[in-house]
Design goal:
By secondary structure, the chain is mainly alpha-helical. It has a domain of 39 residues. The chain is 37% helix and 4% strand. It contains three helices and two strands. It has a two-stranded antiparallel sheet. The longest helix has 20 residues. The radius of gyration is 29 Å and the shape is elongated. The two termini are 57 Å apart.
Amino acid sequence: MSLTADDVKKIARLAALDIRPEQVADYEKNLSSILNLVEQMDAVDTTGVEPMAHPLHMVQPLRDDAVTEEDQRDHFQEHAPATEDGYYLVPKVIE
């Protein structure tokens, strides 16, 4: 697919891009190249190809879920202005 200078100007206006007149020819060439690549990829037969969520087939390494710090909630809440049943009380901000 080949774009015209008018197409580029229209795209620039819709995308709120400020393209100088001397840049239109470059944008026309580059955008046309991108659209041609998309057309080439669209022409490839992908029947039977399973979609991938990620291009690399890797497993995320996970660590064991283990407690690494002692519970300090009571210590932290000593400095809070208001607490109740282990929760911090805050002023109501939404009616």
